[in-house]
Amino acid sequence: MSEARSVTVGVDGSAPAMAALDWAAQYAHARNMVLQVLTAVGWPGERPAYGGYQLAELKDAARIDGQHTVDAAVDRVRTVMPGLAVAGRVSDEPAVRALLDASVFSDLVVVGCRGLTPTASVVLGSVSTALSAHAASPVVVVRSDRQAGPTTPVVAGIDGSERDEATLEAAFAEADRAGAPLVVAHAWSDVTLVGVFGASVVPSWIEARHDAEELVHRQLAGWHGKYPDVRIGTVVEREQPAHMLLELAATAGLVVVGSHGRGGFAGMRLGSVARRLLHYADAPVLIVRGPHAEH
């Protein structure tokens, strides 16, 4: 018998974490998956200022608080979705390590985002960004509790690379499951070449746009037949990719992008477009691992 598919959601008791919990519960329920609720109470490093006894007491207190957080989250899910299989656990590891470990055994990991507060960069830097860059599974970052309707589109950002296949596979599957339209977006000029090299080296914008539209057509070849019920629209613009996707995210139910962009390499691990979406997108963002991603 195959092991049940699962979604892991990281919670810490905050309102953004509750939004992530609700999103993950709905996702798991719709797909008959198991929901794993995880709270991590470890510190990134030991606290040398505390003695061994004090440190042990602090860890015990953190674990008790963590168990309360997990129990409350599990109760919240069971109250709303009594038929959903849900379990909770507390990890003594720091949040990033605990979630990375969980991603090896999960089909999806979901985390919240605190938004543009003074601590946002800390939260994103230590959890969301690191997890999105290094997780073994796809990752969803939820920024708000906004609910998607049946006509709310799934948006997929593509760049013409081989990684588009994984992005489109995930985006089509999500749109098909939700009965939502799919918008495939491609920015065909994300730098101002005229200002850098002069007008003589820049092809006509008409030709460039035609090439970009042909690229999108090629990348979509075959997907119509695989997902005949998905309504597909395309957006092809001379724009910076992140700016275009952020605008589309304002009315999207989900934005799907690859973990790397053009010119991505293992040392960067998370493309600049994905990074900006994690910080600023209004819709949940699904980060998909490419075919050559390293774990």
UniProtKB/TrEMBL annotation:
Listed GO MF terms = ATP binding
Q: Does the keyword ATP-binding apply?
A: yes
A Pfam family this chain is assigned to = Usp
Q: Is Cytoplasm a UniProt keyword of this protein?
A: no
The organism's place on the tree of life at top rank: Bacteria
Q: Which InterPro entries match?
A: Rossmann-like_a/b/a_fold, Universal_stress_UspA, UspA
Q: What sequence ranges are listed for the domain UspA? A: 5-143, 153-289
Q: Which UniProt keywords apply?
A: ATP-binding, Nucleotide-binding
- Stated family: Belongs to the universal stress protein A family.
Know the name of this protein?
Nucleotide-binding universal stress protein, UspA family
